[in-house]
Write a structure and sequence with these properties.
hydrolase, 432 residues, Urease, subunit C, domain 1, 13 helices, TIM Barrel, dihydroorotase activity, binds (4S)-2,6-dioxohexahydropyrimidine-4-carboxylic acid, 19 strands, 9-stranded mixed sheet, DHOase_cat, 5-stranded parallel sheet, EC 3.5.2.3, alpha/beta, binds zinc ion
């Protein structure tokens, strides 16, 4: 299988042609066209657009098994491929929970069958994500699913002793613990970021300290265990300060921010539209600004979508009853262009770092997030940086339509995605 990509600008730099044979880049040059392309060569004219390594998402909810009314692995990876992603990490808050080898192997196998995007199941840290008894991390790590990331996402591993033990196992197994940092005692009944907007709307507050204190505690535990800790969806300016301090001490902590925490604030809550309900909650302009600066600086390492589809029956409800979560896979790149590239906080090298290279490193994926160079995997995301498009939830590939960007015009469009030499999406359509 041979793919010839013509007129592509790796990282937005010099235009080149790229030959991919059997999934690997074998030649990069100019005018590769006629000589090197055989009869069965597929040609992808990149039109002078920006070529990045395939995007890697450390945090998605694919809902299968058990939540197929909101998303399936198939609809989820369609959204991923269309969004430029070539690998995703599927969170374990499924039913049954991804806390045994059987369940994680099922998810991995289903992803491989579809073949459009590598699906890496995240194993639960505790049995049933209940927070009381460690799951068999070693069994999942050594299973066919090769689990390298564990999380109780959706819930925090709130018990410090359980978290300590999990980090000790993680250190021994060379895996990473991804913490949904939320002290549940501090967020009981919480409905919105604790601040002026929540007070005015009469919504119980989710204090930023519930995140900050868990991150502070976990950094200390990770230091002691010599383990890798990853902090999910950082949302508060105060958490950034904790991360900065921990990194300065050499603690092995990494962190992610979601596109929605880069762009959206609690100012959107005034109409009580549950499409804006998410956990952690949308916070203030001070927080979004802090997220952008921390990401530019590397205090926050990566962007991860927290793609959280919810069928209308769960989302179209009164605020308190609606489930938290937002779609993210097909809008992530555009939101990063809008919040980071347009203001000059990241260039295309930086985008490749936060959406591909660093997440692949954290998730321990040896053949993702690689440089665009001869001998490296032919795994790419092609972006038209000048395109503008209007988001319509109904037109997205996800089974659910809960996008907070409905009707918004966003810059930058993914025009093609390539996984190991195979075009998985092109011009808004998934390859079949
Ligand atoms: O908003 C959220 N939705 N936050 C989470 O932690 C879980 C997620 C979900 O599963 O819907
Ligand atoms: Zn979470």
């Amino acid at each position: 299988m041979t793919l010839l990509i013509t007129n592509a600008k790796p990282y937005g730099e010099q235009a080149v042609d790229i030959l991919v044979e059997d999934g690997v880049i074998t030649e990069i040059g100019t005018d590769l066209v006629s000589d090197d392309a055989g009869v069965d060569t597929e040609v992808l004219d990149a039109g002078g657009h920006v070529l990045l390594p395939g995007l890697v998402d450390l945090h998605v909810h694919l809902r299968e098994p058990g939540g197929e009314e909101s998303e399936t692995i198939e609809t989820g990876v369609h959204a991923a491929a269309l969004g430029g992603f070539t690998a995703v990490f599927a969170m374990p808050n499924t039913d049954p929970v991804q806390d045994t080898a059987v369940v994680v192997e099922h998810v991995r196998r289903r992803g491989a069958e579809i073949g459009l995007c590598d699906v890496h199941p995240v194993g639960a840290v505790t049995v049933g994500r209940k927070g009381t008894q460690l799951a068999e991390l070693g069994t999942m790590a050594n299973s066919g699913a090769q689990v390298r990331m564990f999380s109780d996402d959706g819930s925090c591993v709130n018990d410090p002793l359980i978290m300590r033990r999990a980090l000790e196992y993680a250190s021994a197994l060379d895996v990473v613990i991804a913490q949904h940092a939320e002290d549940h005692r501090l967020t009981e009944g919480a409905q919105a970021h604790e601040g002026a907007v929540a007070a005015r709307l009469g919504l119980a507050g989710w204090p930023a300290t519930a995140e900050e204190t868990i991150v502070f505690r976990d950094c200390a535990l990770a230091r002691e265990a010599g383990a890798d800790l990853h902090v999910c969806h950082v949302s508060s300016v105060h958490t950034v300060a904790v991360l900065r301090n921990a990194k300065a001490q050499g603690i092995r902590v990494t962190a992610e921010v979601t596109p929605h925490h880069l762009l959206l604030t609690d100012g959107r809550l005034t109409g009580y539209d549950p499409v804006n309900k998410v956990n952690p909650p949308l916070r203030t302009g001070t927080d979004t600004q802090a997220m952008r600066e921390a990401l530019a600086e590397g205090v926050i390492d990566v962007v991860a979508t927290d793609h959280a589809p919810h069928a209308a029956q769960y989302k179209d409800a009164e605020w308190a009853a609606a489930r938290p979560g937002m779609l993210g896979l097909q809008t992530a790149l555009s939101v990063v262009v809008h919040t980071m590239v347009e203001p000059g906080l990241l260039d295309w090298r930086g985008v490749a770092r936060v959406l591909s290279e660093k997440p692949a490193e954290i998730g321990r994926l040896p053949d993702q997030g690689r440089p665009i160079a001869v001998g490296e995997p032919g795994t790419f995301c092609l972006v038209d940086p000048d395109a503008q498009w209007t988001v319509r939830g109904a037109g997205l590939a996800s089974k659910a339509a809960n996008t907070p960007y409905e009707g918004m015009r966003l810059p930058g469009a993914v025009v093609a995605t390539v996984l190991r030499g195979r075009v998985t999406a092109r011009d808004g359509k998934v390859a079949v």
